[in-house]
Design goal:
Number of strands: 7
Radius of gyration: 18 Å
Oligomer: single chain
Low-confidence stretches: 118-135, 150-197
Number of domains: 2
Helix content: 25-40%
Number of helices: 9
Mean pLDDT: 75
Strand order of the largest sheet: 1-3-2
Largest sheet: 3 strands, antiparallel
Structural class: mainly alpha
Order of helices and strands: HEHHHEHEHHHHEEEE
Amino acid sequence: MDDLDRLFRRVVHNVRGAYPELVTQSFEVSQLYQQVVPYRLNRRELGVETVEDYELALMQLLSGARGYLTGDADMQRALQDELESLNPDLSTYRGYATSRVALAADALRALDQQPVAHAGATAGSARSAGSAEPSAVASRATERIRTSGSTTPSSSSKRGAAAPHQPPSAAMSPKSAATPASSSSTAGEGEGGHAHAASTCRFCGGSLPNGKSIVFCPYCGHDLTVQHCPACNTELEIGWRFCITCGRQVS
């Protein structure tokens, strides 16, 4: 079992527990990574070590790998091509935020027929004792990321190599798990392009230090002075309410 298998299992677990209507209904891509299985709330169960590992598995899932999700054919082809590229941009899926996907009925039936793992088993032990090798696409993409030294030409290159455990103050309540990550308290634009400290990072929910000008989150490495359009992924300034490229409301 690899990251892709664990991600699909976690998606099914969370959907059945909090969004049972999505078992048979389609939903937007943005809802998948913002509400159903956001990285900051599921990284321990997924056993992923970095944001890049999570985004790689998410790209594979959305591309239709192993038939886990059904969705827009053009989106899935584009994500497959990106994963096959020399230096895949792991944020590409954000450009398809409004595309719709659905859990594949055959994959759900196959999952239900598999034996249930012992309750004491952890995602970490599952990683070390996994019975299936990653797909060829995943292996090639992972190798390119490691050898290139940078996951993406844009925002991903600004992230740290690994996301450390969040302090207790960064713990999220059940209510926050059902809201998009962008709804968390954000940092406003300050002098010189720096951001004034806010209560929490809008990406990972980490508690930000007070009285400091902050550009990057100390926990997940995201740039807090910009935001991205949920529809076309255009980089926008904090405080802008509409996208300058497609006109979608962003706040």
